[in-house]
Every structure is written in structure tokens, then in C-alpha cells.
Design brief:
By secondary structure, the chain is α+β, with helices and mostly antiparallel strands. The protein contains eight helices and nine strands. The chain has a three-stranded mixed beta sheet, with helices on one face. The radius of gyration is 28 Å and the shape is elongated.
Length: 301
Amino acid sequence: MNRRQFLKMGASAGAFALSCCPSKTASATEEAKEFVGVLVDTTRCTGCRRCEAACAKQNGLPVPDIEDPSVFERVRRTDTTAWTVVNRFETDKGLVSVKGQCMHCNQPACAAACLVKAMLKKKDGPVIWRESKCMGCRFCMISCPFDVPKFEYESPNPKIQKCNLCYTRLEKGERPACVESCPVDALMFGPRREILNDARARIANNAETYYPDVYGDTIAGGTGWLYLSSVPFEQIGLNPNLSKIAYPEYTKGFLYGVPVIFVLWPAMLAGMSLLTQRAEKTHAKEEREAQKEQETAKEKG
């Protein structure tokens, strides 16, 4: 391979890489539609954990013993066998129970980071994981500001596990299983705009009950799950210090360049390797010829 062939190979790889890059003007994979969401009113939650059991049954996960009070002795995170967890926090206003799950961001960092679109934001709001497309890079785990997607390290056929907002139920016109199971109406499902307006109305009409903000309104660019609280959010395990700008905005330039890195860079390295090997062979040949000339000169002398 000469220099011209190497440069030609690099240019071809670059053109292919650019053709693979996502276009800023490309149409969305799914037609735009108003997002749905869930409002969690923590002033109403009793910590019964029926939402945990309903989620497990709906998704074929181990059904927890919801009568076991020992689970409240520590703060739990969602994992590969529990997509929904309820924790209990000691606050300025007493014990408060809080449900946790995937937040289903309006602009999810996990979906933006996924090179093969295994993580997908559905047109009506749910963020789902598609097994058939996943290559196991786990960028979704690293990028999530809420630390939600979990990888089945112990499985021979590992999956990414997280709440999918019961999107198969939504397609049939049903509510998420956790919402359906709540006996005290602590969970309210509907179009995100409507439940956000309802949350603001509750705050306005009951200022003495609610902390004057809705968690998820603008945090991380806005989320599908919204929270009302009687105390500041940090007291109930919610991080109020996350950016209000959607996280994909910070990495957009890098993400558009990722395909170039994966396609063009290996091609360039391969070309450089071939050129190096050729140079080494040429150098070795020249040394052999020089040595042969020296031996011939000695014989004549």
C-alpha cells in the first residue's frame, strides 16, 4: 500500500463514517406526540409497597414481600430484579415514603448515548430498552443522571433492566401497573402537561402542605415522573442539584462524532500499520543488500 492508497482508504472510511453519523435535521424515528407521565404525591403515600408488587408481577420479576418492614432500614436503589422501590425517609415533617423508578426523561441521556438506539424514547413518553439492538456497551448506565439502568452481570445472557412505564399496557389504553395498584391515589397518570398543571394547582391551593416546587418540572430538562413533597426534595432522596438543561445537550457534539471515531480511526490505524510494516521490510531489504555488497567487496579485496 503506497501513500496515495492509504489516503484514499482513509477518505473512503471517513465518507462512510459521516454517512453513518446522526443528522441534526433528520426526522425523528417516531412521530411527535404529547408525552404522558405520572405525578407522585409523597404527602399521600403510605408506603404500602403495592406498587412494587404490581410492577414485579407485570414484568415477570420476583414479587417482594410487601409486609416486610425491614426493607425500610436502608435506602434501596432499583436493580435488575426490582424496577420499582419504595423508601422511607425521616424528614422535618416526620416519616415520608417515596417511590423510585426510571424517571423517563423528556430528552433521555441514556437514549442519546446509545450508539445503536437500543434505548428509545417512545413517541408518547416511555423510555424503553430493545434487546435485539443492544450491543452491551452500557453507555446508557454511565450517562443516566439518576443511575437507573442496571446490567445483569451475573447472567450468561445479560440484559439492561429498568422501568419501561408499562408501555405495552399504554398501547392497550391501560394505566401503568403501579398506578393501577395504588390504593390512596398517590400516583396520578395522564398527559404530562395536565398532571403538571394539577401539581401546581395543589401547591397553590395548599401552600401549607406542599413544598413550593415540582420535582421533574425542569430537572434534567424535564422528566415524565413528577414529584410533590411537603419538605425540600433532598430530604426525600431526590437530587435537586441536577442541571435543568437536558444532559444530551452537553454531549451533542461528542455523540455526533462517535461513529467517526469507531469507523474512521480503526481504518487509519490499519493503514498506518501497513505503511509501518512496509517501511520495516524496505529497511531490512536495504540492510541485506548493503551487507551483501560489503561481503562481495571483501572477497574481491
